[in-house]
Specification:
heterodimer, A: alpha/beta, 2 domains, four-stranded antiparallel β-sheet, 10 helices, B: mainly alpha, two-stranded antiparallel sheet, globular, ABC transporter ATP-binding protein (chain A), AAA+_ATPase (chain A), ATP binding (chain A)
């Protein structure tokens, strides 16, 4: 079931708030003795573009995998579009996902790959064809759609992966570095697409290291550090919290909250 | 760059590749207990053999030169083949972009060569110690330890150089000539079938292989025996041959090493031709025959999964080629066993089961490996039930007509009645679906981290597969489960069972028909259980 078919009632069958696209409660993931995600409490409203930031190894990918039901949490609970994140069957109707490496068959053409995905999603053939044509045109991939993906550049693969993630108009779309490898024109198309998705009430969970993209698009930002959500809020609100106020950038906020306190103290002593 | 510097850097590359390989797969000495035990067994066997030869010579008899030549030739061919395999696997993992922008191509090639030699040496060391131990005790000459060690090391050097050159030549030809690659891979997978038929014909015609075997004694490979036993001073051992083989190595090995450098550079710098075209889409949305008949009673996602499996097999026939395992087991073990039973119906059951297994393996095996790249999308797009049913549908749509075309005419032409022919065909269909279900359940039990990119037949696109013997053992597991479920059909249709039962008043045909029906029931039950397990495993399959 896609977003267009979902019930827009305020409270769903599970008795949860339908205004919330994502909610987690004390979500935790542990590998052996290593804690990847530590007590994550997230609430993301519908139609939000949520910028999910954090240094390498902070636990962003693990969090996304838990939210997309690809990885069971060690403890804690969570819901995406009202469906529990431990119930993959229930969740798949509501989500689209573009991981860092686009999940596409090298042996297929882009058209075959997108038809495959549309078929798995039980979309009608006419709807699949129409969505594929529209999105291929939008991402300037129509001319190459019948070439094997193995011959594609990194950017073309990324575009195919992105089209795949959004073609079924999901309630919540998880994008992990969606502008990676794209030329400026394609990156702009991606940014515009993300804005359009949010305007149509789709929630975009955006994980990227390109902070200007988040600053431009995100309505809400959460920064993960060492498995914990260290700060959350609107980009302007986060910037105001710094001494420099609105003159500072999201990069300043990121560096401020992701600096180890011990090292920061040592640095200031040295100075 | 000087030769010494090239060798130094080549050694560094070999060591780095060795570390990577050891961390990925372990070594026979540390990583795989079964293999280590096997090697110790081989060492004991070789030790005993060397001891026996030593005692024979000590008792005044001559060295069994011809038999030893045959043994050394087989060992040399094995070493060359293993070297070729190590080259193939490591070449795929090599990072030419890094190496070729850091060191000259010849240094990188020497690094690869060094790795292959080190890898082969770790496999040889335990058997060689056994051989040396047996020979020292048997001959009573401690110095033989040195001559055997030199002989084995020299033979390994030649085998590595030859194996690597052969593999690189094959790879270069395959890159340039797509057709040659196609026939090469076909020969590798199914070449054993004509070989087996040839061996059977030779056996039937009672042709002696003695003249062929005697040739081995005349080949220069046999000179390694002279080198190994030169310390014994035995009359048949030629010291001229012993030193001749060393001289030959001094000339041949550097030539082959030079050749590998040129070949490796050619491969790294060439643009590969592809086995399949790179343009043109095949629609996954067309309404097929089954869809027209059954309509929307089967969800669209199920058809899509089945169509994707067929399309993937057209592009990279990994499932179809994996049926080589089935044909090998059923041809080399099942066929002689059924011929021994001497019952026509049992033979027909064997055909039906084999065809069912082939179709089931072709479209049900390795689900994670096949979907490896798209797994995050597949797991977040389709339900477990739909994915598994799609796999079963893909196998059934191929298996059902295949069983009908092969089994039904054979049954009708032969002395088997129509009823038993139809039942046997039903059994073949049930086996096909059952095999796919078991293969899916078994395949979904492999963790995501177990897969690495490896080269595969017919294509230059690396596929994801499990390393080592695990994948092979999994095929054994699938075959074991399905064949165990089919056991009543093989036993019940055999005259060894039906005839004794007939003596107590139950007619033979009734026993045969009953056993076929019972097997269909068992196979169906196994299918249901395996499907449920597969669905459960798909629904909870994690990606770390």
């Amino acid at each position: 079931m896609t977003r267009n078919q979902s019930n827009p009632a305020a409270v769903n069958d599970h008795g949860t708030d339908d205004q919330l696209a994502i909610s987690t409660d004390d979500l935790r993931k542990e590998y052996g003795g290593t804690i990847a995600v530590d007590g994550l409490d997230l609430t993301v409203d519908r139609g939000t573009i949520y910028g999910f930031l954090g240094p390498n190894g902070a636990g962003k990918s693990t969090t996304i995998r838990m939210l997309t039901a690809l990885l069971p949490p060690s403890s804690g609970t969570g819901r995406v579009a009202g469906a529990p994140i431990t119930d993959r069957e229930a969740l798949i109707d509501h989500i689209g996902y573009l991981p860092e490496s686009p999940p596409i068959h090298d042996e297929f053409t882009a058209r075959e790959q997108l038809e495959y995905h549309g078929g798995l999603r039980e979309m009608k053939p006419t709807e699949i064809e129409s969505r594929i044509e529209t999105l291929l045109d939008r991402f300037e991939l129509a001319e190459d759609a019948d070439d094997r993906i193995v011959t594609y550049s990194k950017g073309m693969r990324q575009k195919t992966g992105l089209i795949q993630a959004i073609m079924h108009q999901p309630d919540v779309v998880f994008l992990d570095e969606p502008t990676s490898g794209l030329d400026p024109r394609a990156a702009r198309t991606v940014r515009e697409t993300i804005t359009d998705l949010a305007a149509n009430d789709t929630t975009v969970f955006l994980s990227t290291h390109i902070l200007p993209v988040v600053e431009e698009l995100a309505t809400e930002v959460g920064i993960l550090y060492d498995g914990q959500l260290v700060t959350e809020g609107a980009p302007t609100e986060l910037k105001e919290r710094l001494e420099a106020g609105e003159e500072s950038s999201l990069e300043d906020v990121f560096l401020e909250v992701t600096t180890d306190e011990q090292y920061a103290a040592e640095d200031s002593e040295d100075e | 760059m000087s030769v010494i510097r090239t060798l130094q850097l080549g050694t560094k590359i070999a060591r780095a590749e060795w570390t990577r390989h050891r961390r990925e797969r372990g070594t026979p000495l540390t990583g795989n207990l079964v293999l280590f035990v096997l090697l110790v067994g081989v060492a004991i066997g070789l030790g005993w053999l060397a001891y026996s030869v030593g005692r024979t010579v000590a008792s005044g008899q001559t060295l069994p030169y011809t038999r030893l030549s045959l043994f050394v030739s087989v060992a040399f061919v094995w070493m060359t083949w293993r070297s070729s395999q190590y080259t193939r696997i490591r070449f795929e993992q090599f990072d030419p972009d890094l190496l070729l922008t850091t060191v000259p191509a010849r240094t990188a090639a020497i690094g690869l060569l060094g790795f292959v030699y080190a890898r082969l040496s770790t496999t040889l060391i335990v058997p060689m110690l056994g051989l040396i131990g047996g020979a020292v005790v048997g001959f009573g000459t401690p110095s033989i330890a040195i001559s055997i060690a030199i002989s084995v090391a020299a033979m390994a050097a030649l085998a590595v150089a030859l194996g690597m050159t052969g593999r690189l030549v094959g790879r270069l030809i395959a890159l340039r000539l797509v057709r040659v690659r196609y026939y090469r891979d076909l020969l590798i997978v199914f070449g054993w079938i004509p070989l087996m038929i040839g061996a059977m014909i030779l056996q039937e015609l009672s042709i002696s292989l003695a003249p062929v075997i005697s040739i081995f004694g005349a080949l220069p490979i046999a000179w390694f025996i002279d080198l190994a036993f030169v310390a014994t001073g035995e009359a048949t051992v030629s010291s001229r041959n012993a030193f001749g083989v060393l001289g030959l190595l001094i000339i041949i090995v550097p030539l082959l090493v030079g050749g590998t450098t040129i070949l490796a550079r050619q491969i790294w710098e060439s643009v590969p031709a592809r086995s399949t075209g790179t343009r043109g889409s095949h629609s996954l949305l067309k309404t097929g025959i089954l869809e027209r008949i059954v309509g929307s009673r089967i969800p669209r996602a199920v058809y899509t999964v089945a169509r994707e499996r067929w399309l993937m097999e057209r592009r990279i026939p990994r499932g179809v080629l994996s049926t080589g395992y089935v044909l090998a087991v059923m041809g080399l073990v099942g066929f002689p066993a059924v011929l021994f039973l001497g019952e026509t119906l049992t033979l027909l059951v064997l055909f039906a089961v084999t065809v069912g297994l082939v179709a089931g393996i072709a479209f049900g095996s390795d689900p994670i490996a096949t979907e490896y790249r798209t797994l995050p999308m597949v797991l977040t797009s389709v339900s477990g039930r739909q994915f598994i049913t799609g796999g079963l549908l893909a196998a059934a749509m191929v298996g059902i007509p295949l069983v009908a075309v092969i089994v039904v005419p054979l049954g009708i032409i032969g002395p088997i009645g129509l009823a038993q022919t139809v039942l046997t065909a039903f059994l073949g269909w049930a086996v096909c679906v059952c095999t796919a279900a078991v293969a899916l359940a078994v395949g979904l039990d492999v963790e995501h981290e177990e897969f690495t990119p490896l080269p595969f037949f017919f294509t230059d696109v690396p596929i994801y597969a499990e390393q080592g013997v695990n994948a092979f053992l999994r095929y054994g597991q699938i075959l074991g489960i399905v064949l165990l479920a089919c056991l009543p059909a093989f036993v019940g249709t055999s005259s060894y069972i039906s005839e004794p039962i007939a003596t107590v008043g139950i007619p033979g045909p009734l026993v045969q028909t009953g056993s076929l029906l019972l097997t269909i029931l068992i196979v169906t039950a196994v299918t249901r259980i395996a499907s449920r397990i597969a669905v459960q495993r798909f629904q909870t399959y994690p990606i770390h």
